[in-house]
Design a protein that fits this description.
heterodimer; A: alpha+beta; 7-stranded antiparallel beta sheet; 40% helix; 11% strand; B: alpha/beta; Alkaline Phosphatase, subunit A; 8-stranded mixed beta sheet; 16 strands; 34% helix
């Protein structure tokens, strides 16, 4: 001990002498940091990705905050510092590093450092929220439109852009030609070029008034543009164009993505909703509310349910949902949070998942408040009725059906139930009369020996088949048929007297089918609505005989040795012509000899309600005169009557519709999934599931100071209320982000670049607006005039700036993938204007190795019906892109794409030149030209007018005519569709 | 009208689009607006002299078992059959943990470096002195979809650019007559995530992989379009004339000039690509070296040979896949390690060794980086009878070629091969190292997207100097 103390003392002296310097930052850099790096970082640093015990030693804040057991050291007090205790290895459980101890010298240096106050210059960026004093967070300034001297009438946008302070690069100026202006307008609003006759009409109006003064000329042009803008905005092609921009923004696609990239058969209903919403110009705040919580805001309009498809727009990792549910849930919800906040408010809330936002005033707690908003939803199909009356009827009968299942006395003893019961009782005055049919022919597929008995039954004998299909034919049946009955009967020849031939007397009926054969026509399958039986083996109910699955069946064990019967009710009453034959197919495919021993068929024309097999309790109750029935007998009758009626009524309703979305109750590929109560959301330190902090309450962003950042003092138990509260927060007129976001987006799509050129981020990492006054004015004007997008478009396209001939660089570009494709179709006369409905596949689908099918774009036939539909109706396969559309910069559908690049590459040139679509449509275009004119020069003129919207020059006419004379009109189309004059909008 | 200020304005605009960070690579300019001709020498992003000029990545789809291939675990032999794993099913595993299971394969030491290699890789074993092993790779997930994304793009979620796309963006191509980034998927099917693994994400479409499935899509018109074939030469000449005369109306618009150049390069590609993909002129000896003469190695061998031919002709990044998605014919050996793993290993062993030797003999290994990767490892616990489940805890990657110290290793897994023990290496470190070898600083290679300067390595990444020459 003494020696040890002495030793330490001398080392201390040596160390002090060696350093000959105070314990300061340099001491840390020279002596301490290398020890930490070499001996501790492997388990306690960000670079290693390891933070054992939640402790990091790669920054000052790392040891100040410490790990799970608290601060790692106390400056000035080595003895009280956990780090020193650990490296001295007093307690084997906490000894550090775990394997190779530090040397005495290293320990001494660390002790000295702490004793000297533990100076550490590695000040990490201290988590300090940035200021809310930021342009996009300030209230909107309504502003005054700057007046241009000497001009009586100035369009507001031109007024703003005419001032010297304008830094946006855009400016009103001399108008471009009518052709250029109209192409701009059409591509902007419809995503299509104008037709030659449309340009002609426009040109007529455009040229109508000669300019006697520049003011008058400007007013004239503005009026012409107003008329044409109104015309185009009123056309449904507008919604088709702008829906696509929204889908880019929110990464909407028709498939899941990831490992199991399944098709979402019902995603298209959301696509149709968005198109309709844009066409109807619903106010922007309503658009927000509908997409986030239409179920709360418009409960009496179930037809608007597809709006919720917004919540299901993004990818879904089906595999991770099953095998790594915890991580899945966090990442899936993250995607929805990021999408929602980017799309509506242009903020990057996702950056605050692991720590406070580094640039914008978004604390980590805000992120988890948003997570709490979506804590009660899962992606999947949501059912709805587009007809509210059907929706109400379905709700009523479902309620009654549930009441019958659960024997809800309140409902079953109500006047409504009494009425239903009375109506049903009226059908039960007499039981149905059954007519037993004797078969004229019968066959055994399994090879049994069949014998007809005098009572109409058929007995199975001889070798017992493993599996059996019994087919029976009947003539001279009743003329009307409402139900058909199968009796399985006993016989002394059968094991345990039957009615089955299995060793224990059981049988398994897999499927029961009824067919009608008339003359030489193909047999017609008769739909059977429902099956009843007098007894079901547990788990082997009679419904299995109609479920279309040969793997399930009806059985009667253990009640063997007695006859049983099953009644099948026809979906519609069948009228049997005198010459017709009935065919009954009785499939018994379970195997191992579970075949029917003796079977007999009967039919009835009576009301099916009288034909069904009633439960014993109901039969017993019916046999007692009404006045003498006790309460439980009355209840038994009411239960049966209500259940029966509800089933009938529900089966008569049109099928329920579905949309792929997210909600509390969804179904995923047929399986129901539900989140009964919202999941508890905790703030996760460093975003890690293993480090849960405080519980988060639903809310939004604190930086929008005009609005309360949390939605309720206590947890909102109903998840839909949370979504509704977020929708209200976003749609509030006092949320400046929302209005700036959409005004900027619309500007971006008209001018190729936003006023703030980062449409999904108006924060500090985004590009600040070149002209904030104009953006504010537009946003406020949009908000204060009903949130009408059409009004905003009209405002923009009627400005002189929109018409200008100045080719301001970012403004115009190559046609986007959809505009190119749709316009080529239109030029070839092949554009199919059908709107809506399931997505059109531009590929052939084959069975895949696993869940994901094979998708072959090159095998698609462009003559298929629907191939001429607009691109918006194309099925977007998230992980298997369409190579042609991708070559033209259609975005990766797994990412939010608020802007599209416009690339140029050799592979794109090849796609435009050689793709099946371009070549087949060139042929179609050639056919069209041939039908338009007989003379080859006239054909070329027609081609140039359709594609370039002008007449050819003499030289062009010469070149194109000689080319098409040699190579044909299809070859001409190919060249024109590849020409830059067509591909670019000036 | 003076053209110059306009052109300058456009350039500064493009820089703004890129987000205000340093120099924007030429390919990027081209991508965003066609500022400059495609195929020109890319510039700007390199920060130091590169050791490697091109990359061939071999991706084993499904999750290669490390303890049955390159990471022997004597401890598993000792504890074989004992149920020592967790009782609850860990996240990402498809089933519960069975008993610890020893490898059914024998390990031997090879080369001067003395690397242990199992009997499954006898040919690769002969080349271990050229390989640098990362023995403690780890990942954030044990699920195929996110796992494949992580190893290809550095993120668990879809929509991020993969390594090949980033390299294309950073460096462009070495040749102007072939695509920059080519993927050769397993003809039996696409991997997990389908084409998502080769996506350019938010980078412009020019950086998207050219996926070669027997042909380059749209390189030529289909046979049925006879007019397209007969009019090809005259048509292109006419198109160029029309486009040039249209461009002449506005000489300041560089997008139009870029289109003209793109068409010319497309024509060059039509001439060059068929030759590059044609193996018939390779000698029988060379074909045998890659295993083209044997049924079980023929397919992967062909694609390895294609990779070499493409790399040789200037393709910057080639990715070769072994195994489709699904339950069979890949490295996802849940059912039986002794039954399922040997045929997979045999199908790639000789082709890989052949590729390495061929590159070396041609002197190409000096500046070609070869990487062998997979999405995660497999459990030391048995699944079912003798399969192994997914394990993101630890797995093996190796590198060879330009700038890599052959025979070196980095990191260790724990005694069971369940988790890493030291020298833990993430995809971030691997990607940072690959970029480093290509002369790039992974922290400087960025693209502004939705408010963030996105990187291949996110906010992580350490260059693994331990394995560099």
């Amino acid at each position: 001990m003494l020696i040890n103390t002495w030793l330490r003392f001398s080392i201390l002296l040596l160390a002090l002498r060696g350093s000959a310097a105070p314990i300061d930052d340099a001491f840390f850099r020279d002596r301490i940091e290398p020890i930490l790096q070499q001996r501790c970082f492997e388990c306690h640093s960000h670079t290693a990705g390891k933070m054992k015990g939640s402790l990091t030693l790669d920054s000052r804040s790392g040891w100040v905050n410490g790990g799970k057991s608290g601060a790692a050291l106390v400056p000035g007090q080595p003895e009280a510092s956990r780090l020193i205790q650990a490296i001295r290895r007093g307690d084997p459980d906490t000894a550090m590093p775990p394997k190779n101890p530090l040397s005495a010298g290293e320990i001494q240096l660390l002790e000295d450092w702490i004793l000297g106050g533990a100076p550490d210059p590695r000040i990490a960026v201290v988590s300090k929220l940035s200021s809310t004093d930021w342009w996009s967070l300030r209230p909107l300034r309504t502003g005054v439109v700057p007046k241009t001297a000497g001009q009586a009438h100035t369009h507001p946008i031109d007024g703003f852009l005419s001032v010297p302070a304008n830094q946006s690069g855009l400016r009103p100026g001399r108008s471009a030609t009518a052709r250029t202006v109209l192409r701009r307008l059409y591509f902007d609003l419809h995503g299509l070029a104008p037709l030659p006759e449309e340009l002609r009409a426009f040109q007529g109006e455009w040229d109508a008034t000669p300019a006697d003064s520049s003011d008058a000329r400007e007013q004239h042009e503005q009026r012409v543009m107003e008329r044409w803008a109104d015309r185009l905005l009123a056309h449904p092609r507008y919604g088709e164009r702008w829906a696509r921009h929204w889908f880019d923004t929110i990464h909407f696609a028709d498939t899941h993505g990831f490992e199991h990239d399944r098709i979402r058969q019902n995603a298209w209903r959301y696509r149709d909703y968005v198109i309709a919403a844009f066409n109807a110009d619903i106010p922007w705040d309503r658009f927000v509310r509908e997409q986030l919580a239409v179920d709360v805001f418009y409960p009496d309009q179930p037809q608007r349910t597809p709006a919720l498809g917004f919540l299901g727009a993004g990818p879904y990792d089906q595999s991770a949902a099953g095998t790594a549910p915890m991580a899945f849930e966090v990442t899936d919800r993250d995607d929805l949070i990021v999408q929602t906040m980017a799309a509506f408010t242009s903020t990057t809330a996702g950056c605050a998942r692991c720590h406070d936002h580094k640039f914008d005033p978004i604390p980590q707690r805000d992120y988890y408040a948003l997570a709490a908003v979506f804590a009660g939803v899962g992606k999947g199909d949501i059912a709805f009725d587009s007809d509210p009356a059907v929706g109400r009827a379905r709700a009523r009968w479902q309620l009654l059906a549930v009441a019958a299942e659960k024997t809800n006395r309140v409902v079953l003893e109500s006047a409504e139930a009494a009425e239903i019961t009375a109506a049903w009782m009226a059908t039960q005055i007499e039981p149905a009369v059954w007519k037993i049919l004797s078969p004229t022919e019968f066959t055994s597929a399994g090879g049994a020996t069949l014998t007809a008995r005098d009572d109409g039954s058929v007995l199975s004998g001889g070798k017992r088949p493993e599996k059996e299909t019994l087919t029976l034919f009947f003539k001279d049946t009743a003329t009307q048929l409402t139900a058909i009955r199968l009796e399985v009967m006993t016989d002394d020849s059968l094991p345990h007297r039957g009615p089955g031939r299995y060793d224990n007397g059981n049988l398994h009926l897999s499927e029961f089918e009824l067919w009608l054969t008339e003359g030489k026509l193909d047999p017609r399958r008769i739909a059977l609505r429902r099956a009843f039986s007098d007894f079901d083996q547990e788990g082997w109910t009679i419904s299995h005989s109609l479920d279309g699955s040969e793997g399930t069946a009806w059985g009667i064990h253990p009640r063997v040795g007695e006859a049983h019967r099953a009644v099948f009710v026809l979906t519609e009453t069948l009228t049997v012509p005198a010459t017709a034959r009935l065919k009954v197919v009785v499939k018994q495919l379970h195997g191992r000899g579970h075949v029917i021993g003796r079977a007999r068929i009967a039919v009835t024309p009576d009301d099916a309600e009288r034909a069904v097999i009633l439960p014993d309790a109901v039969v017993a109750a019916l046999s007692i005169p009404e006045a003498q029935r006790n309460e439980s007998q009355r209840l038994a009758l009411a239960t049966h009557a209500v259940r029966t009626r509800a089933r009938v009524e529900l089966s008569r309703l049109p099928p329920i519709q579905q949309v792929y979305a997210a909600g509390r109750d969804v179904s995923r590929h047929g399986e129901r999934a539900s989140v009964p109560t919202p999941r508890e959301i905790r703030v996760l330190r460093r975003g890690e599931l293993s480090l849960p902090g405080e519980i988060a309450q639903p809310g939004a962003l604190e930086c929008v100071t005009a609005l309360p950042p949390r939605f309720a003092g206590e947890a909102m138990p109903e998840e839909s209320q949370r979504r509704a509260a977020l929708a209200d927060w976003i749609a509030s007129p006092d949320n400046p982000l929302t209005w700036r976001s959409i005004a900027n987006r619309v500007w971006h799509y008209h001018f190729g670049r936003g006023l703030a050129d980062s449409p999904n981020d108006l924060g500090r990492m985004g590009n600040p607006p070149a002209y904030p006054e104009l953006l504010d004015w537009l946003a406020a004007d949009f908000r204060d005039h009903g949130g009408s997008l059409k009004r905003l478009h009209r405002m923009i396209v009627t400005s002189a700036t929109f018409r200008t001939a100045e080719a301001t660089p970012p403004r115009r570009n190559r046609l986007d993938a959809e505009s190119f494709r749709d316009t080529v179709l239109n030029c070839a006369g092949r554009l199919d204007s059908t709107m809506g409905g399931p997505a059109v596949m531009h590929f052939t689908l084959g069975p895949g190795i696993q869940v994901t099918p094979t998708v072959d774009y090159s095998a698609h036939d462009w003559d298929n019906p629907g191939a001429g539909r607009r691109s918006i109706y194309r099925m977007v396969y998230r992980n298997i892109e369409d190579p042609f559309m991708a070559a033209l910069d259609f975005p990766d559908a797994a990412q939010l794409a608020p802007t599209r690049p416009f690339s140029t590459s050799p592979l794109q040139a090849l796609a435009l030149w050689n793709d099946d679509f371009v070549l087949r449509l060139s042929e179609r275009f050639g056919d069209r030209l041939a039908s338009m004119a007989a003379d080859s020069a006239d054909r070329v003129r027609a081609a140039v007018r359709l594609v370039w919207l002008r007449d050819p020059t003499e030289e062009e006419l010469h070149d194109l005519t000689s080319y098409s004379a040699q190579h044909g009109l299809a070859a001409l189309g190919r060249v024109l569709f590849n020409s830059d004059e067509f591909l670019f909008v000036d | 009208m003076n053209a110059m200020p306009f052109a300058l304005g456009r350039r500064s605009f493009l820089r703004q689009l890129g987000g205000g960070f340093g120099a924007v690579a030429l390919t990027d300019l081209l991508a965003r607006g066609g500022e400059l001709a495609p195929g020109s020498a890319p510039a700007g992003r390199r920060v130091h002299r590169p050791k490697a000029r091109r990359v061939i990545q071999l991706f084993m789809n499904g999750g290669v078992s490390p303890m049955d291939t390159f990471d022997p675990k004597p401890e598993l032999s000792r504890l074989h059959g004992q149920k020592l794993g967790p009782k609850e099913k860990p996240e990402g595993q498809t089933g519960d943990c069975g008993a610890l299971m020893k490898s059914p394969f024998e390990f031997r030491q090879y080369g001067q470096c003395g690397r242990w290699v199992s009997s499954l890789f006898p040919h690769v074993a002969q080349r271990v002195d050229d390989l640098a092993f990362l023995m403690a790779m780890t990942t954030k997930t044990s699920v195929h979809g996110p796992g494949s994304y992580m190893m290809n793009t550095g993120f668990l979620l879809p929509g991020f650019p993969c390594l090949g796309a980033w390299v294309s963006y950073a460096l462009g191509n070495l040749a102007d007559n072939l695509p920059t980034f080519v993927v050769l998927p397993d003809p039996r099917g696409l991997p997990y995530n389908q084409r998502g693994n080769f996506s350019a994400g938010f980078l412009p479409a020019v950086h998207q992989a050219t996926v070669y499935e027997g042909a380059i899509h749209d390189l030529f018109p289909k046979e049925r379009f006879g007019f397209a074939r007969t009019s090809e030469t005259d048509g292109l000449a006419l198109l160029q004339k029309l486009n040039r005369s249209h461009a002449a109306q506005d000489p300041t618009d560089s997008r139009l000039e870029a289109r003209v150049t793109a068409s010319e390069l497309a024509a060059k590609m039509q001439l060059s690509a068929p030759e590059a993909f044609d193996l018939s002129r390779e000698s029988a000896t060379l074909r045998a070296l890659y295993g083209l003469d044997q049924k079980h190695t023929e397919d992967f061998g062909r694609r390895c040979l294609l990779a070499r031919r493409l790399a040789e002709r200037g393709v910057r990044f080639v990715q070769v896949w072994s195994g489709p998605q699904g339950a069979v014919n890949n490295w996802d050996n849940h059912g039986s390690i002794p039954k399922e793993l040997p045929p997979m290993a045999a199908s790639v062993d000789q082709p890989i060794a052949g590729l390495l030797l061929d590159l070396k003999q041609r002197g190409m290994l000096d500046d070609t980086l070869v990487i062998w990767t997979t999405e995660f490892g497999r459990t030391p616990f048995a699944q079912g009878g003798d399969g192994r489940d997914h394990n993101g805890g630890t797995f093996v990657t190796w590198l060879a070629g330009g700038g890599v110290q052959g025979g070196s290793t980095h990191g260790h897994s724990d005694a069971w091969g369940w988790k890493t023990a030291s020298g833990t290496t993430w995809c971030y470190d691997l990607h940072a190292t690959i970029l480093h070898l290509l002369g790039l600083d992974h922290t400087q290679l960025t693209w502004r997207h939705n408010g963030l300067d996105r990187r291949l390595t996110d906010v992580h990444g350490r260059v693994l100097h331990e394995i560099l020459a």
